[in-house]
Amino acid sequence: MVDINITQTAKGSFASADLGSTDKLLKRIRKELGNLKTKAPSVLRSAINKAAVQTKKNLISDAKSTYAVASSSQDSSKSTTPVASTSKTFTLYRASTQNLTARLKTNGPMNELGRFKVSPRIPANIPGLKRPKFYKAQVRKDSGGLHPLNQYKNKPFWVSFRSGHQALVVRSLTKTMRDGKTPALEKLLGPSNAHIYGRKEVAEKMTKTYNAELDKAISEAVKKTLASAQSKGK
After folding, report:
1. Exposure string for 154-192, b = 16+ CB within 10 A, e = fewer
2. pTM for this one?
3. Which is it for the CA torsion 24, 25, 31, 34, positive or negative?
4. Do the bridges between strand 12-17 and strand 110-112 make them parallel or antiparallel, or are there none, so unpaired?
5. In angstroms, how far is CA 122 from the centroid of its own chain?
6. Residues 115, 120, 125, CA angle at the centre, nearest 5°?
7. Residue range 6-14: average pLDDT?
8. Is the peptide bond before 183 cis (omega within 30 degrees of 0)?
9. pLDDT band, residue 11 (cuts 50/70/90)
């Protein structure tokens, strides 16, 4: 099958999209190419990769419209944010004429809650700055706005580490610092990439989008091949 598998280390492959078997697609392309039918595998390879790149962009766009992610200027983490640039969020394994399958892969642990919308983003460990009664956070845009983080026994707070990295943390109830007495800081976490891109509705939307993108890419690749041959023949 000609497909795109979006895979997660935590969940495995959650979706594949296809327009039919490789033979079916090659037969269609050979018919449209006529005397240039031997170029069919190359045309299909090009179309699959183009559709994969566009699908990658569509997945990022979908995440941006669904999740309240901090802007790049707010997120001090050097790690990949859930909706960062497509080149960082996904790895694209391109199709070849020998293997007409493209694969998009994303993985990683749960994202820090600080990579989503948090207010105020004021470190509590800076002298002279007043800590709010409750810090607030929002993960999904449809969740009704910012919500106070008041469900923890120890109040969460925004902290700035020596490295420059900032995060939303809470004092641990079970772990301590190296001195064996001071409660350790535990970062609060949000959904992982596996959750963000592995949702059923995303998989279904991706499948539909990829089908349309591949169909369009095949038509464009065939047209380009025929035009190139005609130009050389003049």
Report:
1. eebbbbbeeeebbbbbbbeeeeeeeeeeeeeebebebbb
2. 0.76
3. negative
4. unpaired
5. 28
6. 95
7. 42
8. no
9. very low
133: phi > 0 → left, psi -120 to 50 → alpha, else beta; which? alpha
Token pair 């170029």 in the structure block, residue: 39
Determine contact, residues 155/186, Cβ cutoff 8 Å.
Answer: no
In this predicted structure, what is the pLDDT of residue 61? 86
Tokens of 200: 């059923």
CA–CA separation, 12 and 142 (whole Å): 27
d(CA 147, CA 118): 9
Beta strands in the chain (DSSP E): 4-8, 12-17, 91-93, 102-105, 110-112, 117-119, 136-138, 147-148, 157-160, 166-176, 183-187, 189-192
- Separation of alpha carbons 154 and 171, rounded Å: 6
pLDDT tens-digit profile of 21-78? 788 899 999 999 999 999 999 999 999 999 988 988 888 888 888 999 887 555 655 4
CB of 6 closer than 8 Å to CB of 13: yes
Backbone phi, psi, residue 24, to 5°: -65, -45
